[in-house]
Design a protein that fits this description.
22% strand; 33% helix; Rossmann fold; alpha/beta; six-stranded mixed sheet
């Protein structure tokens, strides 16, 4: 099966995603005809207009969209194919979803704000391990969790603290540690620096880069962000989505030095005007 992806962590071929009709809500096309590849060891940044399908894509590639326990309306693949770490998602059996998720670290958009308040940092980071093996050796578990907390530059004294005792930036690091504790081959981070202090944002971006370098580029990543300094620091290339379609793909300089798509032109104009965070662009095209 892995040969189908030619060794690439993510291969999207003319991928279309749709939310089926639900009650009074009609069907909604989230992505249409998306084709791109994430190379081994590469960090691909993803940005785009509101409603352009960024978070939907993250949920599908991480396997979260296939969770039968989810109460949300789940997107379905209506065209093309997405292959993640050799798994063809359009025909992925339900029993294979945990196997996919074991190798994909997922940092959802609201990760820092939704950490369980009644669990300690140690319990939160250990959760992905214990979900798969409740009998995991306790001493080995403690060592693994402590190593991960140290890797995200949190003092070990925080292991027994609860999320409400931490700052927003500290909670985000805990969420990142949880996403990486299984040693994933692919990290998918949805707005990892949103809602935290500017100086902490830069530190989190630096941390992602350092973790990747420390692992000798052994994991690839998709980072969704509106913060261009974050993408410039972490991403090898960026993809820009608008109205569910690919508007541009390349390095940041390639994309913005010679923009052809109207939305990308608007983003380039915002950059020239000194905007670093694309959310500042209120009058640009929307989806």
């Amino acid at each position: 099966m892995r040969g189908a992806a030619h060794g690439f962590p993510v291969v999207l071929s003319d991928l279309s995603l749709e939310y089926p009709s639900h009650g009074p809500s009609p069907a909604h096309v989230a992505l249409h005809g998306l084709t791109l590849t994430i190379h081994p060891g590469e960090v691909l940044g993803l940005l785009g207009s509101a409603g352009s399908g960024k978070s939907t894509l993250a949920k599908v590639l991480s396997g979260v969209a296939f969770d039968p326990q989810s109460a949300e309306v789940r997107p379905v693949i209506t065209g093309g194919e997405a292959t993640v770490l050799g798994h063809r998602l359009r025909s992925l059996p339900r029993r294979k979803v945990p196997q996919l998720q074991f190798h994909v670290g997922y940092l959802p958009q609201d990760a820092a704000a939704t950490l369980p308040r009644d669990r300690t940092v140690s319990e939160i980071v250990a959760e992905p391990i214990l979900e798969r093996d409740r009998r995991y050796n306790r001493k080995a578990l403690q060592t693994r969790v402590a190593t991960m907390i140290d890797a995200v530059r949190l003092p070990l004294g925080m292991l027994d603290k609860f999320p409400y005792e931490l700052s927003g930036g500290q909670r985000q690091r805990v969420a990142l540690a949880q996403a990486l504790v299984l040693g994933p081959s692919l990290l998918i981070a949805d707005e990892p620096t949103a809602g935290i202090d500017l100086t902490v944002r830069d530190a989190v971006a630096q941390l992602i880069s350092e973790l990747r370098d420390r692992e000798h580029h052994s994991f690839s990543a998709l980072i969704i962000s509106h913060d261009l300094p974050v993408l410039r620091r972490t991403a090898d290339r960026i993809a820009v989505l608008d109205k569910g379609e690919l508007a541009a793909l390349g390095t940041i300089d390639e994309v913005f030095d010679d923009p052809a798509h109207p939305y990308v032109m608007a983003l380039a104009g915002a950059l020239d005007a000194g905007h670093a965070v694309i959310d500042d662009l209120e009058d640009g095209p929307t989806a």
